[in-house]
Amino acid sequence: MNALPFIERSLDRRSGNMALALVADLAQALASSLDLDAALNLALSHIVGVLDAQGGAVFLIDTASNELVCRACAGPVDIHALRIPADRGIVGRAFTTGQCQIVRDAASDPDFTGAIDRITGVRTQSMIGAPLMTAQGPIGVLQVINKRDGEPFDESDRDLLRALAAPAALAASNAALTRSLIEHDRIRRELQLARRMQRSLLPKRRRGGFPVLAINRPAREISGDFYDFFDLPDGRIGFAVGDVAGKGLDAAFLMVRCASLLRFAGKEGLSPSVWLARANDDLCETVAGGTFVCAAVGYYDPRTHMAIWANAGFPPVLVHGRGNSELFRAEGPPLGIVPGMDFPLQQAQLDGRSLYLFSDGVTDARDAQRQFLGVDGVVDLVSRHAQWRPETRLRRIVGELRRRQLGDDTTLLMIEGAA
Protein backbone atom coordinates (compact mmCIF):
# COMPACT_ATOMS: atom_id res chain seq x y z
CA MET A 1 0.00 0.00 0.00
CA ASN A 2 1.33 3.42 -0.93
CA ALA A 3 1.95 5.99 1.81
CA LEU A 4 -1.07 8.14 2.50
CA PRO A 5 -0.71 11.51 0.78
CA PHE A 6 -2.62 13.43 3.44
CA ILE A 7 0.43 13.43 5.72
CA GLU A 8 2.05 15.93 3.40
CA ARG A 9 -0.86 18.35 3.11
CA SER A 10 -0.23 21.87 4.44
CA LEU A 11 -3.83 23.03 4.81
CA ASP A 12 -5.40 23.53 8.20
CA ARG A 13 -6.48 20.04 9.22
CA ARG A 14 -9.53 21.38 11.04
CA SER A 15 -11.04 22.84 7.87
CA GLY A 16 -13.95 20.99 6.30
CA ASN A 17 -12.11 20.42 3.01
CA MET A 18 -9.11 18.96 4.81
CA ALA A 19 -11.22 16.56 6.88
CA LEU A 20 -12.99 15.37 3.73
CA ALA A 21 -9.67 14.84 1.96
CA LEU A 22 -8.31 12.89 4.91
CA VAL A 23 -11.33 10.56 4.96
CA ALA A 24 -11.16 10.04 1.19
CA ASP A 25 -7.42 9.28 1.27
CA LEU A 26 -7.80 6.88 4.18
CA ALA A 27 -10.73 5.08 2.55
CA GLN A 28 -8.80 4.65 -0.69
CA ALA A 29 -5.68 3.40 1.09
CA LEU A 30 -7.63 0.85 3.16
CA ALA A 31 -9.60 -0.33 0.15
CA SER A 32 -6.43 -0.92 -1.91
CA SER A 33 -4.85 -3.30 0.61
CA LEU A 34 -5.59 -7.01 0.97
CA ASP A 35 -3.75 -7.15 4.30
CA LEU A 36 -6.05 -5.63 6.92
CA ASP A 37 -3.50 -5.54 9.74
CA ALA A 38 -0.85 -3.88 7.58
CA ALA A 39 -3.37 -1.36 6.27
CA LEU A 40 -4.65 -0.52 9.75
CA ASN A 41 -1.14 -0.08 11.11
CA LEU A 42 -0.08 2.25 8.30
CA ALA A 43 -3.33 4.21 8.44
CA LEU A 44 -3.10 4.49 12.22
CA SER A 45 0.42 5.92 12.05
CA HIS A 46 -0.89 8.70 9.81
CA ILE A 47 -3.95 9.30 12.00
CA VAL A 48 -1.69 9.70 15.04
CA GLY A 49 0.47 12.11 13.05
CA VAL A 50 -2.46 14.17 11.82
CA LEU A 51 -3.88 14.48 15.33
CA ASP A 52 -0.42 15.15 16.75
CA ALA A 53 -1.00 12.34 19.27
CA GLN A 54 1.58 10.42 21.25
CA GLY A 55 0.08 7.06 20.35
CA GLY A 56 -2.98 5.17 19.19
CA ALA A 57 -4.48 1.73 18.72
CA VAL A 58 -7.19 -0.10 16.79
CA PHE A 59 -9.11 -2.69 18.81
CA LEU A 60 -11.41 -5.24 17.13
CA ILE A 61 -13.92 -7.40 18.96
CA ASP A 62 -13.35 -11.12 19.49
CA THR A 63 -16.94 -12.30 19.82
CA ALA A 64 -15.94 -15.70 21.18
CA SER A 65 -14.30 -14.20 24.28
CA ASN A 66 -16.07 -10.80 24.30
CA GLU A 67 -12.70 -9.09 24.36
CA LEU A 68 -11.29 -6.21 22.35
CA VAL A 69 -8.02 -7.24 20.70
CA CYS A 70 -5.40 -4.75 19.55
CA ARG A 71 -4.89 -5.28 15.81
CA ALA A 72 -2.85 -2.12 15.13
CA CYS A 73 -0.88 0.29 17.29
CA ALA A 74 1.34 3.35 16.91
CA GLY A 75 3.48 4.95 19.59
CA PRO A 76 6.36 4.24 21.94
CA VAL A 77 5.17 0.77 23.04
CA ASP A 78 3.94 -2.17 20.92
CA ILE A 79 0.65 -3.52 22.29
CA HIS A 80 -0.31 -5.74 19.36
CA ALA A 81 -2.57 -8.64 20.43
CA LEU A 82 -3.29 -7.01 23.80
CA ARG A 83 -6.74 -8.05 25.03
CA ILE A 84 -9.05 -6.01 27.20
CA PRO A 85 -12.62 -6.78 28.35
CA ALA A 86 -15.15 -5.32 25.93
CA ASP A 87 -17.22 -3.85 28.76
CA ARG A 88 -14.44 -2.22 30.83
CA GLY A 89 -12.48 1.01 30.66
CA ILE A 90 -13.01 4.01 28.43
CA VAL A 91 -12.34 1.95 25.31
CA GLY A 92 -14.97 -0.52 26.48
CA ARG A 93 -17.38 2.35 27.09
CA ALA A 94 -16.92 3.59 23.52
CA PHE A 95 -17.57 0.08 22.25
CA THR A 96 -20.62 -0.76 24.37
CA THR A 97 -22.32 2.62 23.93
CA GLY A 98 -21.41 3.07 20.28
CA GLN A 99 -20.57 6.69 21.11
CA CYS A 100 -17.31 8.56 20.61
CA GLN A 101 -15.62 9.26 23.95
CA ILE A 102 -13.44 12.32 24.54
CA VAL A 103 -11.64 12.39 27.89
CA ARG A 104 -9.62 15.49 28.73
CA ASP A 105 -8.34 14.19 32.07
CA ALA A 106 -8.14 10.40 32.10
CA ALA A 107 -7.24 10.13 35.78
CA SER A 108 -10.53 11.75 36.80
CA ASP A 109 -12.72 9.54 34.62
CA PRO A 110 -14.54 6.89 36.69
CA ASP A 111 -14.09 4.24 33.97
CA PHE A 112 -10.36 4.77 33.59
CA THR A 113 -8.61 1.62 34.86
CA GLY A 114 -4.97 2.40 34.04
CA ALA A 115 -4.51 -1.23 32.97
CA ILE A 116 -2.81 -0.37 29.67
CA ASP A 117 -0.68 2.29 31.38
CA ARG A 118 0.65 -0.33 33.77
CA ILE A 119 1.61 -2.55 30.85
CA THR A 120 3.18 0.17 28.70
CA GLY A 121 4.56 2.52 31.32
CA VAL A 122 3.01 5.43 29.39
CA ARG A 123 0.73 7.68 31.43
CA THR A 124 -2.55 8.47 29.69
CA GLN A 125 -3.53 12.09 30.21
CA SER A 126 -6.24 12.63 27.62
CA MET A 127 -7.70 10.37 24.98
CA ILE A 128 -10.39 9.86 22.36
CA GLY A 129 -12.09 6.55 21.65
CA ALA A 130 -14.18 6.32 18.46
CA PRO A 131 -16.27 3.17 17.92
CA LEU A 132 -15.91 1.40 14.58
CA MET A 133 -19.55 1.19 13.57
CA THR A 134 -21.27 -1.11 11.05
CA ALA A 135 -24.91 -1.78 10.24
CA GLN A 136 -24.75 -4.67 12.72
CA GLY A 137 -23.30 -2.52 15.50
CA PRO A 138 -19.79 -1.73 16.76
CA ILE A 139 -16.95 -4.05 15.79
CA GLY A 140 -14.10 -2.25 17.55
CA VAL A 141 -12.62 1.05 18.69
CA LEU A 142 -10.12 3.51 17.22
CA GLN A 143 -8.21 5.16 20.08
CA VAL A 144 -5.62 7.96 20.31
CA ILE A 145 -3.91 9.20 23.48
CA ASN A 146 -2.04 12.31 24.65
CA LYS A 147 -1.46 15.28 22.36
CA ARG A 148 2.23 15.97 21.98
CA ASP A 149 1.87 19.62 22.98
CA GLY A 150 0.39 18.56 26.34
CA GLU A 151 -3.00 20.10 25.61
CA PRO A 152 -6.15 17.97 25.96
CA PHE A 153 -8.01 16.81 22.89
CA ASP A 154 -10.91 19.02 21.85
CA GLU A 155 -14.15 18.62 19.91
CA SER A 156 -12.53 19.22 16.53
CA ASP A 157 -10.10 16.35 17.27
CA ARG A 158 -13.04 14.17 18.25
CA ASP A 159 -15.01 14.99 15.10
CA LEU A 160 -12.02 14.30 12.87
CA LEU A 161 -11.35 10.95 14.56
CA ARG A 162 -15.01 9.98 14.18
CA ALA A 163 -14.78 10.71 10.46
CA LEU A 164 -11.55 8.73 10.11
CA ALA A 165 -13.08 5.78 12.03
CA ALA A 166 -15.70 5.25 9.30
CA PRO A 167 -13.38 3.92 6.54
CA ALA A 168 -11.45 1.89 9.13
CA ALA A 169 -14.72 0.27 10.22
CA LEU A 170 -15.68 -0.43 6.61
CA ALA A 171 -12.29 -1.99 5.89
CA ALA A 172 -12.47 -4.21 8.98
CA SER A 173 -16.04 -5.23 8.19
CA ASN A 174 -15.17 -6.07 4.59
CA ALA A 175 -12.13 -8.07 5.72
CA ALA A 176 -14.32 -10.08 8.11
CA LEU A 177 -16.84 -10.70 5.33
CA THR A 178 -14.06 -11.80 2.99
CA ARG A 179 -12.71 -14.22 5.60
CA SER A 180 -16.22 -15.55 6.12
CA LEU A 181 -16.72 -16.09 2.39
CA ILE A 182 -13.35 -17.82 2.08
CA GLU A 183 -14.18 -20.07 5.04
CA HIS A 184 -17.63 -20.77 3.63
CA ASP A 185 -16.08 -21.73 0.30
CA ARG A 186 -13.58 -24.01 2.03
CA ILE A 187 -16.33 -25.74 4.00
CA ARG A 188 -18.44 -26.07 0.84
CA ARG A 189 -15.55 -27.76 -0.99
CA GLU A 190 -14.94 -30.09 1.95
CA LEU A 191 -18.63 -31.00 2.06
CA GLN A 192 -18.62 -31.69 -1.67
CA LEU A 193 -15.61 -33.96 -1.22
CA ALA A 194 -17.31 -35.75 1.69
CA ARG A 195 -20.46 -36.20 -0.39
CA ARG A 196 -18.50 -37.66 -3.30
CA MET A 197 -16.78 -40.02 -0.87
CA GLN A 198 -20.13 -41.07 0.55
CA ARG A 199 -21.67 -41.65 -2.85
CA SER A 200 -18.70 -43.77 -3.85
CA LEU A 201 -19.59 -46.15 -1.02
CA LEU A 202 -23.14 -46.68 -2.22
CA PRO A 203 -23.49 -49.73 -4.49
CA LYS A 204 -24.15 -49.12 -8.17
CA ARG A 205 -27.63 -49.66 -9.47
CA ARG A 206 -28.18 -53.12 -10.98
CA ARG A 207 -30.45 -53.71 -13.93
CA GLY A 208 -31.86 -56.82 -15.54
CA GLY A 209 -34.39 -57.70 -12.86
CA PHE A 210 -32.04 -57.44 -9.88
CA PRO A 211 -34.35 -57.72 -6.84
CA VAL A 212 -32.83 -54.90 -4.73
CA LEU A 213 -33.50 -51.22 -5.43
CA ALA A 214 -32.56 -48.29 -3.19
CA ILE A 215 -32.36 -44.50 -3.03
CA ASN A 216 -30.64 -42.04 -0.68
CA ARG A 217 -31.58 -38.33 -0.57
CA PRO A 218 -29.48 -36.25 1.84
CA ALA A 219 -31.28 -33.38 3.57
CA ARG A 220 -28.06 -31.34 3.31
CA GLU A 221 -24.83 -31.63 1.34
CA ILE A 222 -23.90 -34.83 3.12
CA SER A 223 -25.91 -37.68 4.59
CA GLY A 224 -25.94 -39.62 7.83
CA ASP A 225 -27.95 -42.37 6.12
CA PHE A 226 -26.54 -45.21 4.05
CA TYR A 227 -27.55 -48.40 2.31
CA ASP A 228 -25.63 -51.32 0.86
CA PHE A 229 -26.20 -54.59 -0.97
CA PHE A 230 -23.75 -57.19 -2.24
CA ASP A 231 -23.54 -60.76 -3.54
CA LEU A 232 -22.38 -63.73 -1.47
CA PRO A 233 -20.69 -66.83 -2.98
CA ASP A 234 -23.69 -69.00 -2.10
CA GLY A 235 -26.05 -66.88 -4.21
CA ARG A 236 -27.65 -64.88 -1.42
CA ILE A 237 -27.74 -61.10 -1.47
CA GLY A 238 -26.61 -59.23 1.64
CA PHE A 239 -28.22 -55.89 2.46
CA ALA A 240 -27.79 -53.18 5.09
CA VAL A 241 -29.31 -49.80 5.87
CA GLY A 242 -28.30 -47.33 8.56
CA ASP A 243 -29.02 -43.93 10.03
CA VAL A 244 -26.31 -42.19 12.07
CA ALA A 245 -27.54 -39.88 14.84
CA GLY A 246 -26.62 -36.26 14.23
CA LYS A 247 -25.78 -34.03 11.27
CA GLY A 248 -22.74 -32.58 9.59
CA LEU A 249 -19.22 -33.89 9.06
CA ASP A 250 -19.07 -35.91 12.29
CA ALA A 251 -22.16 -37.89 11.30
CA ALA A 252 -20.86 -38.24 7.74
CA PHE A 253 -17.52 -39.69 8.87
CA LEU A 254 -19.27 -42.09 11.25
CA MET A 255 -21.58 -43.09 8.40
CA VAL A 256 -18.55 -43.97 6.25
CA ARG A 257 -17.01 -45.99 9.05
CA CYS A 258 -20.20 -47.82 9.96
CA ALA A 259 -21.08 -48.60 6.34
CA SER A 260 -17.62 -50.11 5.80
CA LEU A 261 -17.80 -52.05 9.06
CA LEU A 262 -21.18 -53.58 8.18
CA ARG A 263 -20.12 -54.46 4.65
CA PHE A 264 -17.00 -56.34 5.73
CA ALA A 265 -18.83 -58.21 8.48
CA GLY A 266 -21.76 -59.04 6.19
CA LYS A 267 -19.53 -60.50 3.50
CA GLU A 268 -18.44 -63.14 6.00
CA GLY A 269 -21.95 -64.55 5.81
CA LEU A 270 -22.54 -64.16 9.55
CA SER A 271 -26.02 -64.53 10.95
CA PRO A 272 -27.67 -61.07 10.99
CA SER A 273 -27.85 -61.29 14.80
CA VAL A 274 -24.09 -61.92 15.07
CA TRP A 275 -23.45 -59.41 12.31
CA LEU A 276 -25.08 -56.57 14.29
CA ALA A 277 -23.63 -57.73 17.63
CA ARG A 278 -20.10 -57.53 16.26
CA ALA A 279 -20.68 -54.06 14.81
CA ASN A 280 -22.29 -52.91 18.07
CA ASP A 281 -19.37 -54.03 20.22
CA ASP A 282 -16.88 -52.38 17.89
CA LEU A 283 -18.76 -49.06 17.87
CA CYS A 284 -19.16 -49.13 21.66
CA GLU A 285 -15.38 -49.29 21.98
CA THR A 286 -14.53 -46.60 19.46
CA VAL A 287 -17.39 -44.09 19.20
CA ALA A 288 -17.80 -41.17 21.58
CA GLY A 289 -20.66 -41.36 24.05
CA GLY A 290 -23.99 -39.99 22.91
CA THR A 291 -23.48 -41.08 19.29
CA PHE A 292 -25.34 -44.10 17.96
CA VAL A 293 -26.42 -45.77 14.74
CA CYS A 294 -29.82 -47.25 13.89
CA ALA A 295 -29.35 -50.09 11.40
CA ALA A 296 -30.89 -53.20 9.91
CA VAL A 297 -28.96 -55.93 8.10
CA GLY A 298 -29.88 -59.23 6.48
CA TYR A 299 -29.86 -61.57 3.51
CA TYR A 300 -32.27 -62.36 0.70
CA ASP A 301 -32.12 -65.70 -1.10
CA PRO A 302 -33.49 -65.33 -4.68
CA ARG A 303 -33.88 -69.11 -4.97
CA THR A 304 -36.12 -69.61 -1.95
CA HIS A 305 -37.44 -65.98 -1.76
CA MET A 306 -36.66 -65.99 1.96
CA ALA A 307 -35.44 -62.81 3.64
CA ILE A 308 -33.85 -62.85 7.09
CA TRP A 309 -32.67 -59.81 9.04
CA ALA A 310 -32.00 -58.23 12.42
CA ASN A 311 -32.99 -54.70 13.39
CA ALA A 312 -31.06 -52.36 15.70
CA GLY A 313 -33.38 -49.45 16.44
CA PHE A 314 -34.29 -48.87 12.79
CA PRO A 315 -37.93 -48.11 11.80
CA PRO A 316 -40.18 -51.16 11.28
CA VAL A 317 -39.51 -53.39 8.30
CA LEU A 318 -42.54 -53.46 6.00
CA VAL A 319 -43.47 -56.55 3.99
CA HIS A 320 -46.27 -55.82 1.53
CA GLY A 321 -48.00 -57.88 -1.11
CA ARG A 322 -50.99 -60.06 -1.90
CA GLY A 323 -53.27 -57.35 -0.58
CA ASN A 324 -51.85 -57.13 2.93
CA SER A 325 -49.07 -55.48 4.91
CA GLU A 326 -46.96 -56.82 7.76
CA LEU A 327 -44.73 -54.72 10.02
CA PHE A 328 -41.72 -56.13 11.88
CA ARG A 329 -40.62 -53.74 14.59
CA ALA A 330 -37.04 -53.46 15.86
CA GLU A 331 -36.20 -55.90 18.65
CA GLY A 332 -32.72 -54.59 19.36
CA PRO A 333 -31.37 -51.18 20.48
CA PRO A 334 -29.33 -48.83 18.25
CA LEU A 335 -25.66 -49.67 17.77
CA GLY A 336 -22.94 -48.02 19.82
CA ILE A 337 -24.80 -47.57 23.11
CA VAL A 338 -24.43 -50.73 25.21
CA PRO A 339 -22.03 -53.59 24.38
CA GLY A 340 -23.04 -57.23 24.50
CA MET A 341 -26.60 -56.71 23.27
CA ASP A 342 -28.73 -59.29 21.44
CA PHE A 343 -30.39 -58.60 18.10
CA PRO A 344 -33.12 -61.19 17.47
CA LEU A 345 -33.52 -62.69 14.01
CA GLN A 346 -36.61 -61.86 11.94
CA GLN A 347 -37.71 -63.34 8.64
CA ALA A 348 -40.38 -63.32 5.94
CA GLN A 349 -41.20 -65.31 2.81
CA LEU A 350 -41.31 -62.90 -0.13
CA ASP A 351 -43.16 -64.99 -2.74
CA GLY A 352 -45.04 -62.27 -4.61
CA ARG A 353 -44.32 -59.74 -1.87
CA SER A 354 -41.86 -56.90 -1.37
CA LEU A 355 -39.78 -55.89 1.63
CA TYR A 356 -39.22 -52.22 2.44
CA LEU A 357 -36.57 -50.71 4.71
CA PHE A 358 -36.88 -46.96 5.26
CA SER A 359 -35.13 -44.43 7.49
CA ASP A 360 -37.02 -42.01 9.73
CA GLY A 361 -36.50 -39.34 7.08
CA VAL A 362 -39.38 -41.09 5.27
CA THR A 363 -41.72 -41.25 8.26
CA ASP A 364 -40.84 -37.66 9.24
CA ALA A 365 -41.79 -36.23 5.82
CA ARG A 366 -44.44 -33.52 6.34
CA ASP A 367 -47.40 -32.47 4.21
CA ALA A 368 -48.66 -28.92 3.62
CA GLN A 369 -50.34 -28.98 7.06
CA ARG A 370 -46.99 -30.02 8.59
CA GLN A 371 -48.35 -33.44 9.53
CA PHE A 372 -45.82 -36.29 9.68
CA LEU A 373 -46.26 -39.16 7.24
CA GLY A 374 -45.63 -41.74 9.97
CA VAL A 375 -45.40 -45.51 9.61
CA ASP A 376 -49.10 -45.84 8.74
CA GLY A 377 -48.61 -43.23 6.02
CA VAL A 378 -45.71 -45.24 4.58
CA VAL A 379 -47.90 -48.36 4.49
CA ASP A 380 -50.62 -46.40 2.66
CA LEU A 381 -48.06 -44.88 0.27
CA VAL A 382 -46.67 -48.31 -0.63
CA SER A 383 -50.16 -49.79 -1.01
CA ARG A 384 -51.24 -47.07 -3.47
CA HIS A 385 -48.31 -47.82 -5.78
CA ALA A 386 -48.10 -51.58 -5.32
CA GLN A 387 -49.47 -52.34 -8.82
CA TRP A 388 -46.48 -50.77 -10.57
CA ARG A 389 -43.33 -52.58 -11.61
CA PRO A 390 -40.48 -52.24 -9.02
CA GLU A 391 -38.50 -49.40 -10.65
CA THR A 392 -41.63 -47.41 -11.51
CA ARG A 393 -43.05 -48.04 -8.05
CA LEU A 394 -39.94 -46.78 -6.30
CA ARG A 395 -39.81 -43.73 -8.56
CA ARG A 396 -43.44 -42.86 -7.83
CA ILE A 397 -43.01 -43.35 -4.08
CA VAL A 398 -39.96 -41.08 -4.09
CA GLY A 399 -41.85 -38.54 -6.20
CA GLU A 400 -44.58 -38.32 -3.55
CA LEU A 401 -42.03 -37.99 -0.78
CA ARG A 402 -40.27 -35.15 -2.60
CA ARG A 403 -43.52 -33.23 -2.80
CA ARG A 404 -43.50 -33.21 0.98
CA GLN A 405 -41.12 -31.34 3.27
CA LEU A 406 -38.13 -33.59 3.89
CA GLY A 407 -36.34 -32.41 7.00
CA ASP A 408 -34.00 -35.37 7.40
CA ASP A 409 -31.90 -37.70 5.27
CA THR A 410 -34.19 -40.06 3.37
CA THR A 411 -33.25 -43.64 2.53
CA LEU A 412 -35.49 -46.36 1.09
CA LEU A 413 -34.40 -49.90 0.15
CA MET A 414 -36.81 -52.32 -1.52
CA ILE A 415 -36.41 -56.04 -2.14
CA GLU A 416 -38.79 -57.50 -4.70
CA GLY A 417 -39.70 -61.13 -4.12
CA ALA A 418 -40.51 -63.13 -7.26
CA ALA A 419 -44.13 -64.23 -7.68
What does the model show?
The protein is α+β, with helices and mostly antiparallel strands. It has 2 domains: 5-177, 2-Layer Sandwich (Beta-Lactamase); 190-416, 4-Layer Sandwich (Phosphatase 2c, domain 1). Helix content is 37%, strand content 26%. The strands form 3 sheets. It has a 6-stranded antiparallel beta sheet with strand order 3-2-1-6-5-4, with helices on both faces. Helix 2 (36-50) runs antiparallel to helix 5, helix 5 (155-201) runs parallel beside helix 6 (248-266) and helix 6 (248-266) packs antiparallel against helix 7 (272-286). The model is unreliable at 1-16 (pLDDT under 50).
Main traits of this protein?
Phosphatase 2c, domain 1; alpha+beta; 16 strands; 2 domains; Beta-Lactamase; single chain; disordered N terminus; five-stranded antiparallel sheet; 419 residues; 10 helices
Low-pLDDT segments = 1-16
Rg over CA atoms, rounded to whole Å, is 33 Å
Q: What would the CATH topology of the largest domain be?
A: Phosphatase 2c, domain 1
User: Which architecture of the largest domain would the CATH scheme give at its second level?
Assistant: 4-Layer Sandwich
Write the layout of secondary structure elements.
Blueprint: H1 16-31, H2 36-50, E1 53-62, E2 67-74, E3 83-85, H3 89-97, E4 101-103, H4 115-120, E5 127-134, E6 137-147, H5 155-201, E7 212-217, E8 225-231, E9 237-244, H6 248-266, H7 272-286, E10 293-301, E11 306-312, E12 317-321, E13 324-328, E14 345-349, E15 354-358, H8 360-363, H9 374-384, H10 390-402, E16 410-416
Antiparallel strand pairs: 1-2, 1-6, 2-3, 4-5, 5-6, 7-16, 8-9, 9-10, 10-11, 11-14, 12-13, 12-15, 15-16
